[in-house]
Specification:
118 residues
Length: 118
């Protein structure tokens, strides 16, 4: 098996792209609609991390959570904090009892992305 690709629910293409591409610095790999005016299904990536964002009802529930290993977590958070996003203010990194350092960000659709490193 290879790594799973999580699906996250989205409701607005512009908001999704602003958050994931503009703020988190993912890239859009591809987009798909069954026909013009239909819901968007797209793949985004950053490094080896792949995520599918879907506007399709029934693909997945809003307010999901995924964990993303982020080896350069401190540098990445420094970059995000410097952007001063109006709806996402990354707080402090939390040292967990199991040994990881983590921070959880919430996207505009209620999905949580926990970024972590050892």
């Amino acid at each position: 098996m290879k790594p799973a690709i999580p699906n996250l629910r989205s409701f607005d293409e512009a908001m999704a792209k602003e958050f994931y591409v503009g703020f988190l610095e993912f890239q859009v790999d591809w987009e798909h609609r069954h026909a013009e005016g239909m819901p968007l299904y797209m793949q985004i990536s950053r490094g080896d991390c792949l995520i599918h964002l879907t506007e399709h009802y029934g693909d997945c529930s809003p307010a999901g959570q995924i964990r993303i290993e982020t080896p350069e977590l401190d540098d990445y958070l420094h970059t995000l904090r410097a952007k001063d996003h109006p709806n996402c203010k990354p707080g402090p990194i939390v040292k967990q009892a199991w040994g990881t350092r983590e921070i959880t960000l919430t996207d505009p659709f209620g999905n949580r992305l926990t970024l972590y490193c050892e």
